[in-house]
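[audit] Reproducing an earlier prediction to check determinism. Same input, same settings, fresh worker. If the tokens differ from the archived copy the diff job will pick it up downstream; this log only records the rerun itself.
[audit] input (275 residues):
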Amino acid sequence: MKYVVIRDDDTNPLMPVEYLERLYRPFLDKGLPVNLATIPNVNTEACYAEGKPELFLLAKKGPTPKTMPIGSNPALVNYLKSNRGYCIVQHGCRHEFVNQDYEFNHANRTDIARRLDEGARHLQDAGFPRPSTFVAPYDRLSKQGLVEVVSRFRVLSTGWYQLGKLPLEWWPGYALKKILGRPHWKAGRTLMLTHPGCHLSYHKPYDTMMSEIIKSIESRRLTVLVTHWWEYFRNNEPDEKFISILHETAEFLARRKDIKTIRFDDLAAGAISLN
């Protein structure tokens, strides 16, 4: 059996509920869970480059508070709770830069710990279970960030790991992963996942997107498929071709009996063996 985790990044209280519904209704109807990497207390002025607002803020209208917790949008929260196919995981805290660096890619361990706890608290205040899985903004984590995340979460989903950023006591496990050619490994009790890049992205060729997705799934026991909801609605207009490829992915996953689409929570609970 092969396993697939659908990871959609940047759910936040400023996003339109109908965008999620449009993208993932075919998955939900087929019993395919969708893991939403949710920003707990989004910075509504966040920029990905100098003066360029984050694209996950594309639906922002008029004056808003500097930060907005996920619970400030009851319609979104109720929608997520009423559709049990969604699994909420923690995506940073505010999704902002700290002293010109990524939110969890700096050396201030006290600040990192505070943000991790603040984020978990906002998700729980909105009525979601305490998150078992963490996704860092931009997949960037410092050594201090890695240590704090592993002390709190059972699963870390990111793009890659660098030996120089790992504590010495993690090196044997990481070395074994490299020797055996495994994409995933463990640090203590925490499952350290990687992903093969964002196949589901408008930056990738549409004509070969589905074949690349299938190739990734066929080549490993567990594949994390990463995408971003806002990429399908650039300028608040639906990209119909891109959306159709996402829905084709749902059809493929539902059709293949040797592939199971799972939640990060299944991995956190130890219900899936990757060996």
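[audit] rerun output stored. Observation attached for the diff report: The mean pLDDT is 96.
[audit] end
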